[in-house]
Each structure stands twice: as C-alpha cells, then as structure tokens.
From TrEMBL:
<dbReference type="InterPro" id="IPR043128">
    <property type="entry name" value="Rev_trsase/Diguanyl_cyclase"/>
</dbReference>
<dbReference type="Pfam" id="PF13438">
    <property type="entry name" value="DUF4113"/>
</dbReference>
<dbReference type="Pfam" id="PF11799">
    <property type="entry name" value="IMS_C"/>
</dbReference>
<dbReference type="GO" id="GO:0003684">
    <property type="term" value="F:damaged DNA binding"/>
</dbReference>
<protein>
    <submittedName>
        <fullName>SOS mutagenesis and repair protein UmuC</fullName>
    </submittedName>
</protein>
<dbReference type="GO" id="GO:0005829">
    <property type="term" value="C:cytosol"/>
</dbReference>
<keyword id="KW-0741">SOS mutagenesis</keyword>
<dbReference type="GO" id="GO:0006281">
    <property type="term" value="P:DNA repair"/>
</dbReference>
<dbReference type="GO" id="GO:0003887">
    <property type="term" value="F:DNA-directed DNA polymerase activity"/>
</dbReference>
<dbReference type="GO" id="GO:0042276">
    <property type="term" value="P:error-prone translesion synthesis"/>
</dbReference>
<dbReference type="InterPro" id="IPR001126">
    <property type="entry name" value="UmuC"/>
</dbReference>
<dbReference type="InterPro" id="IPR050116">
    <property type="entry name" value="DNA_polymerase-Y"/>
</dbReference>
<dbReference type="InterPro" id="IPR036775">
    <property type="entry name" value="DNA_pol_Y-fam_lit_finger_sf"/>
</dbReference>
<keyword id="KW-0234">DNA repair</keyword>
<dbReference type="InterPro" id="IPR043502">
    <property type="entry name" value="DNA/RNA_pol_sf"/>
</dbReference>
<dbReference type="Pfam" id="PF00817">
    <property type="entry name" value="IMS"/>
</dbReference>
<comment type="similarity">
    <text>Belongs to the DNA polymerase type-Y family.</text>
</comment>
Length: 422
C-alpha cells in the first residue's frame, strides 16, 4: 500500500496556528508580491473565492465578508512542513516529500498492523502537535492514493480522515466518481482532448485500450492508465539536487541607477549561494539578466543577459556576488528604466567532488568556514541578519508583502512572548 498525507488548506492552516481567533473564519493567502490567491480556507471557498484569482478583483468580497488576508510566509510554511515530515517518519520509514504539504508513504511490509488505525494515529499526532489538520489516502498505487486522498477530503464527515482503496470494487467506485480532469498528471491538453471525445470520468479513461493510450500519450500515459487500474508503476522518488537555482524580482519602482542595480544583484547572488550551500553543491556558471518594463511601451525598451564561468566551482557568497556584479557591468546601459533583474546559478557539482585549477586562486575553500558561520547565524537569528557590504541593506528589493505574519518558529526575535502572572 502507498499512502498520501496532505495538509488541508496548508498555508491557511499554518497561519491559524498562531491565530486561533481565525478558526471558522474566511482566510486567504496571497502569492509573491501579494498578487493572486494561492490558498483559501473552507469558509473563503464558500464565498466563491477561486484559486489563482488576482486579489484586486475580489477586494469588495474581502471587505464585505471580513476576509483575513495574509502574504505568503514561505519560511513559516517550510518549517511547519519539515515538522510534519519528521512526525510522519516516526510512523513510516520510507517517505517521499512531494510538495510542501504532501508526502507519499510506502506501507509495504506493514501487513501486520491496522493501517487505518495507524494512519489515524499519525493524523492525530500531527493535529495535536502542530495544529495542522491532515487527510490520508491509501491505495495499491501512488496515483490511486491521490484519488483516495481527494475522496477523504470531499467526504470527511462520512469517512473520517483516512480512506483506503483496497479492492477492485472500491477502485471502480472511485474512478466513476473522479472527473477525468482531476487525474494526477493528466494535464489540460489531454483533459480537453478526452472531454471532446466524450470521456468525463477517470473510469472512462481506464476503459480505453492500452495501445490507444500509448499511441496518444506515450509511455507516461500508459503508466498512468495502469496505475489507475491498481498496477504499480512508480516507486517512491529519491530527491535530487536542483540543476539550477535562481532569484529574481520585479521592482516596485523603475530605476536607471547602476548602484541600485548592483545592490540588488548582490542580494540575489547571496540568496542563490545560500540555496546552493543548502544542497551541498557548487556552481560553475552565473547568469545575470536585467530588463525594462515591457508593459510601458512609451519608455525605451532594453533587456539583456550574460553568463560567465567561475575559475573554480564555488558556493562562496563573496565570490559569486563579485562575479555577478562583473556580469551586470557588462550588460548595463544607462538611460534605461529597469524594472526587473535576476541571478541564476547553473552547472552544479557536489561540494566534495570539485575539480580546481592549478593557476587560479581557490576562494571556495578559503571562504567556506566563513560561509558556515554566516549560515548558522542567519538560521539562528533570522534571515538576512548577516549580509555582504555590497548588498541592498535596506531590502528595497524585497517582495511586496504588506500582510506578512511573523516567523514564529524560525526567528528568535519573533517568538511569541508569554506573560507570567504571579
């Protein structure tokens, strides 16, 4: 059996941990720069607030219904997610973290325990330990476990918090209920194509001949077809290091000032180097880009990018920032109003497998102890407490997050204060 554990309305639930007054009230979470709705409480869904809707389009609904609005606090969500996974590992050895709010679990060789009770205990441990409600679906395949999870979320009042698809009868019943567009991985293109052919439910899809599915969708579609029929095609995935790491921002105000751009590029490079060190990798190439506001046709337009190679693979924020600034100077042109910039790191190698040049100074090893101290201090004291002198110290580059909640679990300066009454 495979299981899928999913935090219900996860971003909203994470915000409610420290705001119990918002339970049973409409809450939404906004995307980067407070643009679109990316999470909704059940109460917000009942008001007709859709996923992905621009916030400005529903400002009247928000005001009239006293909807609480939060800017995305990804540091908080990531920390709560890690805590969920750590609890889950106490109940299942083999786990694949699929997303910030979802994890697959492999329950093969767990034949001698009652999986329903076991998963309910897992759910209760997370709920009473973190105040995050979860739903768990179990089935013979990963794809069917996603279906089981959808079912238990939809019918939680009747089914509780765990649902198991463990027979052909249950598979057929589930697929006759599931819309074809809700199949994991079906995609909009295939959904539209099959809908035009009269296929409405997942059950209609599995009735198609295997040869036809493979012809239309390739091996990927065939595997999906077999997974839905209860034939396992996918094991748990082993996480792989990212092949590219980037940071970019759209500025609140346009600028033609090279010094301002340098501060922001240095800040982006620093952020990228942090992510690089987190996965114990070094990069060989740095790409920097700048662009004007393409939505302002009355202004002169210009965009450019450049990729440069490092003398030696590195994860040093000092070295990466220095080369990023050199790259910026190569593409910067005055008298243009720049609206966006970014940094991308590519061509990674493991930190332990670096090949260095005999003729160039290796700054990576020289800076490594300093980087370790900076990472520890920023983790302990909060992000951006220690920076490079070339960075944007005022954080004018940061995203528009007017409704950002405190980082209660990761920043020592934002911990909740409890008053003791004698």
């Amino acid at each position: 059996m495979y299981g899928l554990i999913d935090g219900n309305n996860f971003y909203v639930s994470a915000e409610r941990i420290f705001r119990p007054d918002l339970r049973k009230k409409p809450v939404v979470v906004l995307s980067n720069n407070d643009g679109c709705i990316i999470a909704r409480s059940n109460e917000a869904k009942a008001l007709g607030i859709g996923m992905g809707v621009p916030a400005f389009q529903i400002k009247d609904i928000i005001k009239q219904n006293d909807v609480s609005v939060f800017s995305a606090n990804f540091i908080l969500y990531g920390d709560i997610s890690n805590r969920m996974v750590n609890i889950s590992r106490r109940f299942c050895r083999d786990i694949e973290v699929y997303s910030v709010d979802e994890s697959f679990m492999d329950f093969h060789n767990y034949e001698y325990i009652n999986l329903r009770n076991h998963c309910n205990e897992l759910r209760d441990t997370i709920f009473y330990g973190l105040d995050i409600p979860c739903s768990i679906g179990l089935a013979p395949t990963k794809t069917l476990s996603k279906v089981a999870n959808k079912i238990v979320k939809k019918f939680s009042h009747e089914l509780g918090h765990t649902y198991i698809i463990d027979s052909q009868t249950k598979i057929e019943k589930a697929l006759r209920w599931l819309p074809i567009g809700d199949i994991w991985g079906i995609g909009r293109r295939y959904n539209d194509r099959f809908t035009k052919l009269g296929l409405k439910k997942a059950w209609d899809f599995v009735q198609l001949p295997e040869a036809y599915v493979q012809k239309e969708m390739g091996v990927y579609g065939l595997r999906m077809h077999q997974e839905l029929r209860g034939i396992p095609q996918y094991d748990l995935s082993v996480p792989k290091p990212k092949k590219g790491i980037g940071t970019s921002r759209t500025f609140n105000k346009r600028t033609d000032d090279l010094e301002v751009l340098k501060e922001r590029i240095s800040t982006f490079a620093f952020k990228c180097s942090e992510k690089l060190r987190k996965q114990n990798s070094c990069c060989n190439f740095i790409t920097v880009f700048i662009t004007t506001d393409r939505f302002k046709s009355d202004l002169k337009q210009y965009s450019n990018s450049v990729t440069i190679g490092l003398p030696n693979p590195s994860s040093s924020a000092i070295e990466i920032s220095a080369f990023a600034l050199k790259a910026l100077e190569n593409i910067y042109l005055p008298f243009f109003q720049y609206k966006k910039a970014g940094v991308m790191l590519t061509e990674f190698v493991p930190d332990t497998e670096r090949m260095t040049s005999l003729f160039d100074t290796d700054y990576h090893d020289k800076h490594k102890p300093l980087m370790e101290v900076i990472d520890r201090m920023n983790k302990r004291l909060g992000a951006d407490k220690i920076k490079l002198g070339s960075m944007d110290l005022q954080r004018t580059w940061k995203m528009n997050q007017k409704n950002l909640s405190p980082r209660r679990t990761t920043d020592i300066n934002q911990l909740l204060k409890v008053k003791a009454i004698s």
